[in-house]
Amino acid sequence: MKYWFKNDYSFGAHPQIMNAVIAANLQGNIGYGFDEHTQYAKDIIREKCGLPNAMVEFMIGGTQTNVVACSFMLRQWEAVICANSAHINGHEAGAFESTGHKLLQVEVGIDGKLTPELIAPLLEIHKDVHLTKPKLVYISNATETGEVYTKAELMALSKFCKSNNLYLFADGARLGAALTSKSNDLTLSEFASFVDLFYIGGTKNGLMYGEALVIKNVDLCEDFFRMKKQMGAVMAKGWIQGVMFKALFEDDLFYKMASNANEMAEKLQYGLINLGFKPWIKSPTNQLFFIIPNKVKSKLNDICECEDWCVYDNNHMVVRFVTSFKTSESDVDGLIESIKNIVLKSR
Amino acid sequence: MKYWFKNDYSFGAHPQIMNAVIAANLQGNIGYGFDEHTQYAKDIIREKCGLPNAMVEFMIGGTQTNVVACSFMLRQWEAVICANSAHINGHEAGAFESTGHKLLQVEVGIDGKLTPELIAPLLEIHKDVHLTKPKLVYISNATETGEVYTKAELMALSKFCKSNNLYLFADGARLGAALTSKSNDLTLSEFASFVDLFYIGGTKNGLMYGEALVIKNVDLCEDFFRMKKQMGAVMAKGWIQGVMFKALFEDDLFYKMASNANEMAEKLQYGLINLGFKPWIKSPTNQLFFIIPNKVKSKLNDICECEDWCVYDNNHMVVRFVTSFKTSESDVDGLIESIKNIVLKSR
Amino acid sequence: MKYWFKNDYSFGAHPQIMNAVIAANLQGNIGYGFDEHTQYAKDIIREKCGLPNAMVEFMIGGTQTNVVACSFMLRQWEAVICANSAHINGHEAGAFESTGHKLLQVEVGIDGKLTPELIAPLLEIHKDVHLTKPKLVYISNATETGEVYTKAELMALSKFCKSNNLYLFADGARLGAALTSKSNDLTLSEFASFVDLFYIGGTKNGLMYGEALVIKNVDLCEDFFRMKKQMGAVMAKGWIQGVMFKALFEDDLFYKMASNANEMAEKLQYGLINLGFKPWIKSPTNQLFFIIPNKVKSKLNDICECEDWCVYDNNHMVVRFVTSFKTSESDVDGLIESIKNIVLKSR
Amino acid sequence: MKYWFKNDYSFGAHPQIMNAVIAANLQGNIGYGFDEHTQYAKDIIREKCGLPNAMVEFMIGGTQTNVVACSFMLRQWEAVICANSAHINGHEAGAFESTGHKLLQVEVGIDGKLTPELIAPLLEIHKDVHLTKPKLVYISNATETGEVYTKAELMALSKFCKSNNLYLFADGARLGAALTSKSNDLTLSEFASFVDLFYIGGTKNGLMYGEALVIKNVDLCEDFFRMKKQMGAVMAKGWIQGVMFKALFEDDLFYKMASNANEMAEKLQYGLINLGFKPWIKSPTNQLFFIIPNKVKSKLNDICECEDWCVYDNNHMVVRFVTSFKTSESDVDGLIESIKNIVLKSR
Question: What are φ and ψ of residue C220, in 5° steps?
Fold first, then answer.
């Protein structure tokens, strides 16, 4: 049997989540998210975020949430600023552009982070009315390469966006991993205070599916449900999302699962460095990126599900290892031991 | 406690479905529907449909499936023909038009059925190149008011579409109810043979969520996954859909659940007629539409979750009652008894 | 040589318009409509409309103007209400829907007019959040069949729209014909006061091309140029539109040309009725619709360019005759004489 | 009076073009481009291109043509590859993305040219089905900075596109300038043979407006008119475009006008270099880009309409000078003399 480090969605729901779904399964609930579980889960999230008046809506997956949230904030000629490595700019198959908006890409470093300095020149150019109008800045926390924004960094971005009349949106597919990272110095409510809208990822943190979108300015949100419906994002049995998010925020499960993923990643990172492998970027969250010699790589797939990220050079690949709520110490130990054997044999 | 006849998505998954999900939950599976459960489920569906080469893809919900499937078949200037009462023309918040295509509405009767005779004049008008080009006919089976197409009716539509170079798409949100209806004379594979593409509804027939889209002409489908991804319809934990559909088609659960819903509806229809209520349309499937005096209606909501469909006249509402896999004989008996009491008291 | 009654765009520009273009042709002008001719023309139009603060923008053609103007006013989930016979719903090849919005059609009479009573039921139904949100009412003046709105009718619509939070847009492709019609009791500035946005048609009233879009609420218009550019509606040599519209509103040419068209139409209508033909609708503007026996119709095309509008019955067609700034008394007399000959011969 | 070197659309139509329009102005012509002038003009263009079977359609402006042509060739999930400096990626206000497609940008040099080597890596990455599918390569000839593709370069691109199943589209807004450039070694028909579709720019080469789109594979084009109509690109008085393009290709006016622009540019380039100014790129067509000291620049605007292109450094701007059919030797001499005076005074 292989070790699973391919991603954080190879396993379904945490048992506590699954038990909550089973308990509500045959109960009878109003459709489309108008049920009591959902209302309760929204209230918990508002409370945890310190945003008693925010709109919270449960979405199905990350691509959908990014697309619905970003396009919801924009008029037709308005554009989104993002890192060239942003998820919305790549592995979403043009989903955002399919809503008719342009993505304005900023070249960033491996860490995937945007800064005011990187964005400013683009704003200058776009004063020209023959161009689209930048209106929203998209960031991810954790970023696509597992990095996290510090309080100082996020505060600076937030201030810059406000003073330039830009919305700040955070893709939180791995927000749990970010907030429980050793590099993090933000609470959920502090994080929430710096952005205009964001989502709390459930799919990659122990739910079967589901993301919680939070929009702070409720004046904008009057018709959000119609938009959500139009975008195919309303589930008939929406109450299942309510049940799962309720369970996610009870008993700190959200943080516990993300912490486990981070701790297992740290342990694995330590082990791989000890074996002599070089990290491509030293991630403080649950995605690790290592520069692996091709001759090791070719045998790695026999023992482990992991992901080719990109070509490093003629002799090396960057390989991604991802941990999750389900990853155990023995998984990590076993993987390290197995890789050790590959290395030994390949000498 | 109230009786639940509001819709067929108030209850979650049939226990057999849920057990299958639990069994696979912590197994480790490849993401995005490339896992073995999903491949197996697709094979079963191809077999049951008698379409060994068809493309089968699992979608999340009905609105999404309608939008993705119909727009996938069209070039930008091509339009869809549907009944004015079609789901795609109403309770989908303009989802189809949001892809940039026009819906050409045909006025139909209460039964919601399209016929060649109803469509032909519209084709004549649209020979004019200043208009959109009709390219796909959208029908629902069962229709929005619970009616089913007979083999003769569907064959006639199919022939008409072929000879006019139109695709025929069937929204099968309630295909189980249609195929197990007493009015039905079609098998699944016969049904499949008459249309170009369709979906088998899971959400309204005992799954947590999920619809199985079937497209017969695989030459068109090379890039379907990219389209699906772009439309936010790919689930990271797609293997859960595979597991659910596998369980749905094992042990004839698909038919058993739908049959139960139909039988319970028939029993309820009989009971309501016996109490003196008049059906708006005499549905042979799991949705019933009754003309209810307002003074009965006002008390009905205390004992039963059901849905106001439309105003009939100043003194009557059309009320919809829906049964599901979960509806039991005692639910039906209890509801009839309770309505009887309302009627007695209201005299 | 045939008589030209096919439409009001078979002839180019009125000589006064053409002379103005020639005068400015090699003058040197800033591009994209930022030149002085354009600014001056906008000022004249604002003055004539009694709207000193309105935004005026020159567009290229009618379909483009309808699509840009209507979609500019809407958020993604918002819809337009129009008559089923509206130009935007037919001979624009789905242009409006291609921007992602739904058209909500209201069945109207031959005159093509909308009323509060016809719209109200649709608003009631669309309180349901699973549907699109109606936000703009589209009317045409003159309508597609040549009718005009009276002051009382337009005032009622205006009041209804305001109280229901709906924008009122008027397609003015033939606004000149409407305002100079004998049935009209509105001045341009009264007309402008009742709608939120509208356009003054140039293409069908003596320009080579060009429509003047007027939006009253300039707070909405900050980014209109970016939208216009995105929709391909900005002309590099935009100053030509400015020159033409300046000439159109100097010396009352706008009214003179439209009046000529209406007078020639009236004369033709009188003549055709005298010959025993029955009008399908008795139009007070420059489009006439007559019920013509097929055996007359078959010979009509030899002497006259006119348009088949629709089939009336097995033996008759509805034929449209259109007059323009170019139509002369001798054209009308000649046509009537020729038709008289056809009739005599066909007895 | 100022010298006009701001762009090639500050002057209207060449007198021969204007005279042709005047001659046809009150003639009576069928609408929407179905007239005889238009048919004749299409035939001439097919002949000049050596493409007897191609589709030729007259469009209004460059942005519109790029958007309609590119999106016409694509399915929803397919993307366009272009230089980061491409017109479609900048000064079109997101028009292409507004049709729902993604632009994949390739970083190129100042010359704005794409090569197979620059495109290949992007194709490799996009084999991943989670990404959009590249399907069309957009180039401009002349490029945005006035450079031209050689026969060898275009042949290589063409071969690469064919073997990778990509369409090759050429934006020919300044095709006349390219084909009459001293650096050019392509005839119009050779050029046409290397691309799948392209347009011949009229707006920037002596027409009032209008571009001629040519698509070689007519099997694709059956419904092009419906698409064109939907995109607001059909003009009611389309026959004016026919008349203008007929005149453009009679008497070699197309080449004569472009040659004049190029010769005047060459003369100006020579003069500016003689005055000691450095070209940013040494353009062989009618757009010149010079690095101008800010203190010269500040006085330049008093004597000449020209365009700030970009900041070169703290002390210099890149300024664009554009010539046209209208530019005369005395215009160039006068400008050089005037700049000389500025330079002398600023010492």
Answer: -75, -15
For residue A346, pLDDT beyond 80: no
Average of per-residue pLDDT across A256-269: 98
What the block records as the tokens of D122 is 């992007």
What whole-number distance in Å separates Cα of residue C322 and Cα of residue C9?
Answer: 10
Mutate to test the interface with B, among A22, A91, A99 (most CBs of B within 10 A): A22
* Cβ(D256)–Cβ(D179) below 8 Å: no
Instruction: Tell me the two tokens of residue B132.
Output: 């959109």
Q: Give the β-pairing of A55-59 and A103-106.
A: unpaired
State the nearest Cα–Cα gap between D336 and chain B, in angstroms.
51
* Per-residue pLDDT tens over the stretch C154-190: 999 999 999 999 999 999 999 999 999 999 999 999 9
List, in order, residues 6 or more apart from D89 with CB less than 8 Å away: D82, D83, D96, D103, D105
Strands (E), chain A: 3-4, 55-59, 78-83, 103-106, 133-140, 167-171, 197-201, 211-215, 278-281, 287-293, 304-305, 307-313, 316-322
Bridge-based pairing of strands D55-59 and D211-215 is antiparallel
Which residues from A are below 8 Å from B12, CB to CB?
A: 21, 24-26, 237, 240
Please indicate whether, in this complex, the C-beta atoms of C132 and A230 are within 8 angstroms of each other: yes
pLDDT at res. D64? 98
Which pLDDT does position B212 carry in this prediction?
98
Q: What is the ipTM of this complex?
A: 0.97
Q: Which residues of A touch B26 (CB under 8 A)?
A: 11-12, 326
Nearest CB to C100 within list B98, B129, B132:
B98
In 3-state terms, what secondary structure has residue C146?
coil
Closest CA–CA distance from residue A65 to any residue of chain B (Å): 8
Neighbouring subunits of C (3+ Cβ pairs under 8 A): A, B, D
B83, B112 Cβ separation under 8 angstroms: yes
Q: Which residue carries 């402008």 as its tokens? A: C192
Q: Report pLDDT digits (tens) over D199-242.
A: 999 999 999 999 999 999 999 999 999 999 999 999 999 999 99
Question: If you count them, how many residues does chain D have?
Answer: 347
Look at A75 and C223 and tell me if their CB atoms are within 8 Å.
Answer: yes
The predicted pLDDT at position A258 comes to 98
In sequence order, what DSSP letters do the residues of A132-162 get, joined into one string? -EEEEEEEESS-TTS----HHHHHHHHHHHH
Assigned token pair, B150 = 């007979």
Model confidence, pTM: 0.97
Q: Decide: C259 and C92 in contact? Cβ < 8 Å.
A: no
- The β-bridge relationship of strands C167-171 and C133-140 is parallel
Report how far residue D44's alpha carbon sits from residue A99's, in angstroms, rounded to the nearest whole number: 40
CB-based contact (8 Å) between D328 and chain C?
no
**Cβ atoms D285, D268 nearer than 8 A:** no
Across the range A310-317, mean pLDDT stands at 95
Mutation target to probe the A interface, by most A beta carbons within 10 A, among B98, B211, B226 is: B98
Q: How would DSSP label each residue in A168-208? A: EEEE-TTHHHHHTSTT----HHHHHHH-SEEEEE-GGGTSS
Could you report the per-residue pLDDT of C61-77, keeping only the tens digit for each?
999 999 999 999 999 99
> Residue D303: which residues within 8 A CB-CB, separation 6 or more?
D2, D3, D335, D338, D339, D342
CA C162 to chain B, closest CA, distance in angstroms equals 23
Residue of A nearest to B235 (CA): A61
What separation in angstroms does the CA of C129 have from each of A221, B83, B209, B339, C124? 13, 21, 21, 30, 11
Q: Which of C89, C97, C128, C320 to mutate to test the interface with B (most CBs of B within 10 A)?
A: C97
Q: With beta carbons less than 8 A apart as the criterion, state whether A216 and A69 touch.
A: no
Does the CB of D175 have a partner CB in chain C at under 8 Å? no
**Chain A residues in contact with D98 (beta carbon < 8 A):** 76, 100-101
